[in-house]
Amino acid sequence: MRIALDVMGTDYGPKELVLGAVMAVKEYNCDVVLVGDEEIIRKLLKEYKAEDNPHLSVQHASEVIGMREHPGIAVKTKKDASIVVATDLLRNKKCDALVSSGSTGAAVAAALFHLGRIRGVGRPAIATPIPSLTGTTVLLDSGAKVDAKPEHMLQSAIMGSVFAELMLDIKNPRVGLLNIGEEEIKGNEQALATYPLLKKEKQINFIGNVEGRDINKGTVDVVVCDGFVGNVVLKTAEGLATAILTMVKEAIMGGGLMAKFGGLLIRPALRGLKKKLNPDAYGGALLLGVRAPFFICHGSSKANAIKNAIGAAVDGVERNICNRIAENIAKQTKADKVVGSLK
Amino acid sequence: MRIALDVMGTDYGPKELVLGAVMAVKEYNCDVVLVGDEEIIRKLLKEYKAEDNPHLSVQHASEVIGMREHPGIAVKTKKDASIVVATDLLRNKKCDALVSSGSTGAAVAAALFHLGRIRGVGRPAIATPIPSLTGTTVLLDSGAKVDAKPEHMLQSAIMGSVFAELMLDIKNPRVGLLNIGEEEIKGNEQALATYPLLKKEKQINFIGNVEGRDINKGTVDVVVCDGFVGNVVLKTAEGLATAILTMVKEAIMGGGLMAKFGGLLIRPALRGLKKKLNPDAYGGALLLGVRAPFFICHGSSKANAIKNAIGAAVDGVERNICNRIAENIAKQTKADKVVGSLK
User: Fold this and answer.
1) What is the C-alpha separation between A147 and B188, in angstroms, rounded?
2) Spatial CB neighbours of B291, under 8 Å, sequence gap ≥ 6
3) In Å, how far is A150's CA from the nearest CA of chain B?
4) In angstroms, rounded to a whole number, what is the distance separating the alpha carbons of residues A177 and A199?
5) E-assigned strands of B92-244?
6) pLDDT tens digits for B206-229?
7) Model ipTM?
8) What are all long-range contacts of A185-190, with beta carbons under 8 Å and residues at least 24 apart?
9) CB-side exposure of B220: number of CA atoms within 13 Å?
10) Looking at the partner chain, which of A147, A215, A238 has a beta carbon nearest the beta carbon of B213?
């Protein structure tokens, strides 16, 4: 199995990504194709004493898409951008899955224009696993499509269910619609129109509306929302987690000698917690609805996160997630057509 | 000065609210009119040895609006509901401000139908103060109006600025539009249409788009968003803060003897932090855009939160917040009319 890794366009430069790949081929049964500036990559491979590793190869790409470029325009004009070249490896079946930690917008655009959607999928959705009090919750869409239509939200629910089942081993995952109240009559136009679609869809275990406070509680497995809302929620959670851990540290340091001593004693326990809350543990979010497993990592991912994302990509290929999504979407669109013809 | 306090329809029943009022009249220079079931209130006043306190009076209301009732229908049909009777005290100038911790929807509906908007205000917005790393950020709208129009978001920005300046003593508050990226071209239709309105409004100090992770950072004072997004964000933050503090506790308790001992030593410092993160510190959110200060507290508010909300209501009346909002909204609508007539 071969995983394409776009090593360019990230916050810390290619070194963390190349190191992540070196670590990954030791741990997982896969090859990694490093896509980006060949000279830089070969230098780094030498540095990590991996220039002769048969599981690592290099695919040169002369261009990079920056975080501030218009994604749609950039992937159409920069034919030799690393994310475009990496996506082409998927399309041409030279690789089985892709991992990127460059611009999310560019990754989504490259997947749409250069790889293509699974038949019947209206819009892909980004599924992000987040830690809860009892395990992991999947939030989607976390930013692929803003102003999503109710039909897109329904397909997010179906794809998110498959993700939770196959990738997180959750049986019959509980699906909730993110809303401002539990009652069916609550919500904006989008939520009000989505609720009945989720309610009648037989492929999912819909438990009704959920609220923001339920995301981390462990009472729901798949949280469905619009890409705008999902992105704001994720970034709010990220900022708040950092702020609270900073406040805990400040409270301890400002709390006198005893508190400082206590802080030293609890440090190992807190380090474990920090690890648990760290998005690096899972490695990346998965773009669902495109023709191959397409992982999008945080721009600030370190080597360990990249290694984990490659591991998740291997899982995605082995568990055949795209086929399962294709099957379930086919069932849904077929059922919708039957209903349509009966009208 | 007289504050109307709706003591019904809350999670813990009227006792926390009556106690909050008893505490408030000792601390602030105000009278409180307790609105609700007279028999229950008089019994509680006796219990708190406050039955003869000249600063406390009772206004009987025979009905209550529950959390699950349809707000609009309920405030129109239940003429003797506590929130309706309390709102009527404002309209008839028998009270200067109102505090409620019953159903938010019912409070907003009562304010709209029984008190009325400030001239020129399209829709009221709920402003919620939240703790940041450097002080306090105001998030609005946190739930009064979903599917807000760009004009509503502009007015939220103007009203939120007045709130930050008058109630939180922030000079020239920095206003940000909650979005999924910093660039002007980012966002859903609503955000894209709102950005230029905020950019050209001279009354506010617009600093551009902000992201979810900026809310708690202290780099923005007023965060403007739609009521759906604001509500989801607030509840997510609430749930996550609880989850993280639980995880910190579990990590310490599960971390061996040294960690447990350390946990004991840092307990006082963490208690201070919990207090800082507790929404009770400010007491409530303010419904901006209606004719009198109208405070909406969490349904689970304890006596201390109610006392603080009454204190904030006294502040709101003394600092004349509704007049200032009326002036600034008049400036904005007048400017818009001039622009309109020039077209």
Assistant:
1) 6
2) B90, B91, B115, B116, B117, B118, B322
3) 15
4) 10
5) 97-100, 125-131, 136-140, 174-178, 205-210, 222-224
6) 999 999 999 988 999 999 999 999
7) 0.90
8) A185/B70, A187/B146, A187/B228, A188/B146, A188/B147, A188/B226, A188/B228, A189/B146, A189/B147, A190/A148, A190/A150, A190/A153, A190/A226
9) 25
10) A238
